[in-house]
């Protein structure tokens, strides 16, 4: 039989020899595209720094973040205390560094809760349509109709203050937009030829949703989750600021700003350090999300 | 023995005032090993007939039988080992995130069939590709290669009937020739029965033994494809299609 | 001999994507008079890119160069954006493939035709409407008054395409570029649209560039045929002489077409010779 002319897609050199190799090759290509954009590169660097700092916190903090030293309170930044000390004499830099762990903890936990729930609700809703769709979407409507901070406050009021409760409260307000997004992605896929093809192979609905539809929604959801992270950080900081999130003496950045407010005019470093950290990390996630969208979004690919 | 039997097939969408009757009393028979063409323009209902056979639409009335078995509302798993479909658009019929290997193994996994790696290699060779294509993604393949993969995917379950929905209309002319040759060869080698929907009479004349012409949900004529070229078509609409396909005479301009 | 409306010499179009450049069109040369010229090729041959480059409708990542790219007396490459806008739609128009996507879905079709006229002529709206109705009649649409107020989704494919033609011809252009104008249409409707195009070309002083992948269609409809492969013109021949085409690609394409009247057991498969890339 006549072998067709083997096509070589632009830029491909070696042919992958196994499914692992294929996946690795496409991931590498993705990373290369990602790094090409300078803004995304910066975002990636900052986020990586955050993760690194959180990982090696004990080794770079230099001081115990919880150790009080009232004699040395409210000291300006110096060579001993790089970002000064707070009202209890605790080293601000060390608190900032350990605070990054809390920030990451919140981000990870919220994402791990919100991602799967949003995906499942959205794809099931979009795939089956009918009363299932109606039910799920009216539920998400109820959640979306409240401003997220107000809703989070309501949940905290019910659950009580605390870091874990703050995480749950934020997660409960963050999943509906993900569900909406997943549903929007699923609707046009429902009738796509490749979905019909696998239906015609006898695949069950579960299999189709889990293995064929969700992989297509992943890009949009990952982008959305990344862009949401800035909002999560700010909501967590707001809750911490209000004293409803992480409780003293935990070095959560929002709580640091809240307590440092009183001494802001003389001891600007108490507010400036966590404030700049929040701003940098939020910005970094936004830039990263933007870059991911350029790379992953099939619509923006030429 | 009829491989495909369709009798009194009626299908409507919507209810009440929005009732849209799409198929009217469609009837046809396809013998085993035959290649049967279903020809018509857009809105004729030809693709709808295919999808009813595949089990995608379930609210039709009438009788549908494939290989002697009635096509019912809840299809048993082995229905999908008897009938498979090849779609029109090679760019939409393969899952973008699945490698060729994964896409071909999927039907085997669903039906619990072993020896998947080897079966994938075999089927790729049958459609004129080779193992080097196994771990590529669809966007790394040309239109013709994707269509070959789509045909491989349809054949890997060793069906007896292949439903083809305009399999070459989205392909370049030179690629179309390759795919048509491949389909003709496979039919001979595997003893398949084809029901092919197309709007291109030349393709029907090339690949099919008989054909049915559909217009607005009705079968207006069933004839041997050899009669097309020899002006043996009797119905006015068929003759119109033949003329348009030949592009010899001008058709009076209507609105 | 009619005057040359369009003169193209050594047109090259280069696309830059992610640091890689690819040459979509290489050294394409042709002239267009008062005739129907077909540019035929498969996907990736560069035929649509040629059409778009003539109207400077290529994306910003593309670089267009040519020894000559002249429309009547205007150098298209050197012209300013303002000059090109004055040409687009007025003196050189383009008809696209699918009226579903090329007509504005929220504006009535008659209004769109009138708008096309108003973009280049300062006349009262009433006069533009009259001309649009006139044009609808010219493309053989019965009851132009009724069709004028329809939305694009309310008209059939063939009618939509004729509306598009009306829109593009109302300003009396000298060159029309039709990019696969009948590919999205049913077979029986194609003839209607082609007849309309043929009438317009013969009545007015028009040059038509017909871009298509359908060799059979253009051999009956057009006067001359340019066959493109991988960005180059491999054959330039009168449509009536296609059977005597010399380039193996053209011959291969013609042979690979299934024919209603000459069925064959196996279609000859086009063997691509890498040497054609350097033709």
Word description of this protein:
The complex is a heterotrimer of chains A (302), B (255) and C (279). Chain A has helices at residues 19-36, 38-55, 57-60, 92-128, 130-144, 148-159, 163-190, 193-199, 205-241, 253-260, 269-296. Chain A is an all-alpha fold. Chain A has a single domain (55-300), classed as Orthogonal Bundle (MetI-like fold), CATH 1.10.3720. Chain A is globular and about 75 Å long. The relative contact order of chain A is 0.14. The model of chain A is unreliable at 1-12 (pLDDT under 50). In chain B, a hairpin with a 2-residue loop joins strand 9 (210-215) and strand 10 (218-224). Chain B has a single domain (2-44, 53-246), classed as Rossmann fold, CATH 3.40.50.300. By secondary structure, chain B is of the alpha/beta class. Chain B is built from nine helices and ten strands. Chain B has a six-stranded mixed sheet, with helices on both faces. A four-stranded antiparallel sheet of chain B has the order 2-1-4-5, covered by helices on one side. Chain B has helices spanning 46-54, 79-82, 100-110, 116-126, 143-155, 173-190, 201-207, 226-229, 236-246, and strands at 2-13, 20-31, 35-40, 61-66, 69-70, 83-86, 161-165, 193-198, 210-215, 218-224. The longest helix of chain B has 18 residues, at 173-190. The model of chain C has no long low-confidence stretch (mean pLDDT 89). In chain C, helix 8 links the parallel strand 8 and strand 9. By secondary structure, chain C is of the alpha/beta class. Chains A and B meet through helix 1, helix 8 and helix 9 of A and strand 6, helix 3, helix 5 and helix 6 of B.
What layout of secondary structure does this protein have?
The complex is a heterotrimer of chains A (302), B (255) and C (279).
Chain A: H1 19-36, H2 38-55, H3 57-60, H4 92-128, H5 130-144, H6 148-159, H7 163-190, H8 193-199, H9 205-241, H10 253-260, H11 269-296
Helix pairs in contact in A: 2-4, 2-11, 4-5, 4-7, 4-9, 5-7, 6-7, 7-9, 9-10, 9-11, 10-11
Chain B: E1 2-13, E2 20-31, E3 35-40, H1 46-54, E4 61-66, E5 69-70, H2 79-82, E6 83-86, H3 100-110, H4 116-126, H5 143-155, E7 161-165, H6 173-190, E8 193-198, H7 201-207, E9 210-215, E10 218-224, H8 226-229, H9 236-246
Parallel strand pairs in B: 3-8, 3-9, 6-7, 7-8
Antiparallel strand pairs in B: 1-2, 1-4, 4-5, 9-10
Chain C: E1 6-17, E2 20-32, E3 36-40, H1 47-54, E4 62-65, E5 68-71, E6 74-75, H2 81-87, E7 92-95, H3 99-102, H4 109-118, H5 125-138, H6 144-148, H7 157-169, E8 175-179, H8 187-203, E9 207-212, H9 215-221, E10 224-229, E11 232-238, H10 248-256
Parallel strand pairs in C: 3-9, 3-10, 7-8, 8-9
Antiparallel strand pairs in C: 1-2, 1-4, 1-5, 5-6, 10-11
Helix pairs in contact in C: 4-5, 4-7, 5-7, 7-8
């Amino acid at each position: 039989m006549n072998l067709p002319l083997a096509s070589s897609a632009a830029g491909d050199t070696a042919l992958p020899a196994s499914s692992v190799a294929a996946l690795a090759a496409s991931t590498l290509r993705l990373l290369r595209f990602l790094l090409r954009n300078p803004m995304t590169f910066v975002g990636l660097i900052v986020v990586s720094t955050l993760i690194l700092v959180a990982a090696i916190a004990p080794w770079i903090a230099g001081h115990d973040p919880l150790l009080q030293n009232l004699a040395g309170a409210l000291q300006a930044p110096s060579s001993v205390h790089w970002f000064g000390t707070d009202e209890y004499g605790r080293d601000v830099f060390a608190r900032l560094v350990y605070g990054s762990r809390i920030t990451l903890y919140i981000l990870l936990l919220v994402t791990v809760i919100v991602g799967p729930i949003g995906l499942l609700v959205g794809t099931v809703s979009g795939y089956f349509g009918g009363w299932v769709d109606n039910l799920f979407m009216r539920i998400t409507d109820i959640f979306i109709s409240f401003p997220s901070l107000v809703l989070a406050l309501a949940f905290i009021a019910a659950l009580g203050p605390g870091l874990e409760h703050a995480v749950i409260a934020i997660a409960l307000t963050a999943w509906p937009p993900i569900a909406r997004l997943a549903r929007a992605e699923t609707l046009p896929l429902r009738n796509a030829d490749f979905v019909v093809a696998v239906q015609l192979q006898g695949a069950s609905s579960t299999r189709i949703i889990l293995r064929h539809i969700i992989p297509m929604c992943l890009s949009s959801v990952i982008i959305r989750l990344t862009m949401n992270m800035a909002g999560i950080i700010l909501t967590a900081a707001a809750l911490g600021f209000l004293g409803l999130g992480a409780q003293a003496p935990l070095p959560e950045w929002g709580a640091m700003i809240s307590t440092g407010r009183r001494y802001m005019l003389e001891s600007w470093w108490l507010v400036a350090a966590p404030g700049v950290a929040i701003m940098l990390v939020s910005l970094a996630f936004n830039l990263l999300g933007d870059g991911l969208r350029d790379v992953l979004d099939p619509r923006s690919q030429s | 023995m009829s491989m495909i039997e369709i009798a009194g097939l009626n299908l409507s969408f919507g209810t009440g005032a929005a009732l849209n009757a799409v198929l009217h009393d469609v009837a046809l028979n396809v013998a085993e090993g035959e290649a049967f063409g279903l020809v018509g323009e857009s809105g004729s209902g030809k693709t709808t007939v295919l999808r009813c056979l595949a089990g995608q639409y379930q609210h039709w009335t009438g009788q549908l039988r494939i290989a002697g078995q009635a096509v019912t509302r809840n299809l048993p798993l082995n229905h999908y080992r008897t009938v498979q479909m090849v779609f029109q658009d090679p760019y939409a019929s393969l899952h973008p995130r699945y490698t060729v290997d994964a896409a071909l193994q999927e039907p085997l996994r669903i039906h619990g069939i072993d020896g998947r790696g080897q079966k994938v290699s075999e089927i790729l060779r049958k459609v004129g590709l080779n193992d080097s294509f196994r771990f590529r993604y669809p966007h790394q393949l040309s239109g013709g290669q994707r269509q070959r993969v789509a045909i491989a995917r349809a054949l890997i379950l060793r069906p007896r009937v292949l439903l083809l929905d305009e399999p070459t209309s989205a392909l370049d002319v030179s690629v179309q020739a390759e795919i048509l040759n491949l389909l003709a060869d496979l039919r001979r080698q595997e003893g398949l029965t084809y029901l092919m929907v197309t709007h291109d009479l030349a393709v029907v004349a090339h690949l099919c033994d008989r054909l049915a012409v559909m217009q607005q949900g009705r079968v207006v004529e069933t004839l041997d494809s050899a009669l097309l070229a020899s002006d043996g078509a009797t119905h006015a609409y068929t003759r119109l299609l033949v003329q348009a396909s030949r592009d010899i005479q001008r058709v009076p301009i209507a609105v | 001999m009619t005057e040359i409306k369009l003169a193209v010499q050594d047109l090259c179009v280069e696309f830059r994507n992610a640091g890689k450049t690819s040459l979509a069109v290489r050294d394409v040369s042709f002239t267009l008079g008062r005739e129907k010229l077909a540019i035929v090729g498969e996907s990736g041959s560069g035929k649509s890119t040629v059409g778009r480059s003539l109207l400077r409708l290529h994306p910003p990542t593309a670089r267009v160069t040519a020894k000559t790219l002249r429309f009547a007396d205007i150098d298209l490459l050197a012209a300013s954006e303002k000059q090109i806008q004055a040409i687009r739609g007025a003196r050189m128009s383009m008809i696209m493939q699918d009226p579903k996507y090329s007509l504005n879905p929220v504006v009535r079709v008659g209004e769109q035709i009138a708008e096309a006229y108003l973009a280049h002529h300062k006349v009262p709206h009433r006069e533009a409407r009259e001309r649009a109705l006139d044009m609808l009649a010219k493309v053989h649409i019965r009851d132009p008054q009724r069709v004028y107020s329809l939305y694009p989704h309310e008209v059939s494919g063939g009618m939509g395409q004729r509306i598009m033609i009306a829109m593009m011809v109302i300003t009396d252009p000298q060159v029309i570029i039709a990019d696969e104008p009948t590919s999205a249409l049913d077979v029986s409707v194609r003839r209607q649209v082609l007849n309309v195009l043929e009438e317009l070309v013969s009545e007015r002083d028009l040059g038509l560039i017909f871009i298509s992948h359908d060799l059979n269609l253009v051999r009956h409809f057009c006067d001359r045929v340019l066959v493109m492969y991988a960005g180059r013109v491999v054959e330039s021949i009168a449509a009536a002489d296609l059977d005597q085409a010399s380039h193996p690609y053209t011959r291969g394409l013609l042979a690979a077409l299934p024919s209603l009247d000459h069925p064959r057991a196996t279609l000859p498969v086009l063997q691509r010779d890498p040497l054609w890339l350097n033709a």
